[in-house]
């Protein structure tokens, strides 16, 4: 096995417990865009959100709202506000053992990056709530010049920023098929799905995960 220089970890569902927060925030956001729960379109939209879990939220809203950029931006802002309020109200907990895992990896000389499909402001709200600023070597969110999952950009941005010598020395872990697709597209040697989030083992296997783990806590043993 190639020595791992960098581990790229997803946040919600992988290192941070989701506990339905994305669905709650989406429900508020799509209502702000004119689609309340009573609307006949709501159920199909919710299914799409679940199917695309892990992807950039603005991209998801663009797809749901037929490319109406103004409406998609409005929904995305409402999502950020709703999710941020849930986090500020204390609805944000780490996956058990996640913090210790990150510290253990770094103590072994492995660099760690935290990535998300949320906007940078939402990511920062989570880091604030958990006291995780500085826990990882770097954090990345979709933005200008960096596409969200399933594109490889988040992983490659981490590799560039942290001066990794070879993409084959990267391990990626996440709880969705989009996380898996991102890691594979980036050329990582290890692309692990974890079962603490939205996807089940068959979905992660079908996406091409090299390994499926019960939790991110199992990752150091896999790399040793």
CATH topology of the largest domain: Rossmann fold
CATH architecture call of the largest domain = 3-Layer(aba) Sandwich
What class do helices, strands and sheet pairing give? alpha/beta
- CATH evolutionary superfamily of the largest domain: HAD superfamily/HAD-like
Low-pLDDT stretches: none
In this structure, how is the largest beta sheet organized? Answer: 6 strands, parallel
Helix content: 40-55%
- Termini Cα gap: 9 Å
Widest β-sheet, arrangement of strands: 5-4-1-6-7-8
- How many domains make up the coordinates? 2
Number of strands: 8
Name the CATH class of the largest domain: Alpha Beta
Q: What's the overall geometry?
A: globular
The tally of helices reads 10
Helix-strand pattern, N to C?
EEHHHHEHEHEHEHEHEH
GO molecular function: phosphoglycolate phosphatase activity
GO cellular component, one term: cytosol
InterPro entries: HAD-like_hydrolase_sf, HAD-like_sf, HAD_sf, PhnX-like
GO biological process, one term: DNA repair
């Amino acid at each position: 096995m190639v020595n791992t220089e960098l581990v790229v970890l997803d946040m919600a569902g992988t290192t941070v417990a989701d506990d339905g927060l994305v669905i709650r925030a989406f429900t508020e956001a799509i209502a702000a865009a004119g689609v309340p729960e009573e609307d006949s379109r709501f159920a199909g939209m919710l299914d799409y959100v679940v199917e695309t879990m892990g992807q950039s939220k603005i991209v998801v809203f663009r797809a749901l709202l037929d490319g109406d950029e103004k409406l998609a931006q409005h929904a995305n802002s409402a999502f950020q506000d709703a999710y941020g309020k849930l986090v500020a109200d204390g609805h944000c907990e780490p996956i058990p053992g996640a913090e210790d895992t990150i510290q253990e990896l770094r103590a072994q000389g492995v660099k760690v990056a935290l990535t998300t499909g949320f906007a940078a402001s939402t990511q920062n709200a989570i880091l604030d709530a958990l006291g995780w600023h500085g826990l990882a070597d770097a954090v990345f969110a979709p933005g200008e010049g960096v596409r969200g999952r399933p594109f490889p950009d988040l992983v490659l941005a981490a590799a560039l920023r942290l001066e990794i010598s070879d993409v084959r020395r990267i391990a990626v872990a996440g709880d969705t098929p989009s996380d898996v697709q991102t890691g594979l597209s980036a050329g990582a040697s290890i692309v692990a799905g974890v079962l603490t989030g939205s996807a089940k083992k068959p979905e992660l296997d079908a996406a091409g995960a090299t390994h499926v783990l019960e939790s991110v806590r199992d990752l150091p043993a896999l790399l040793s």
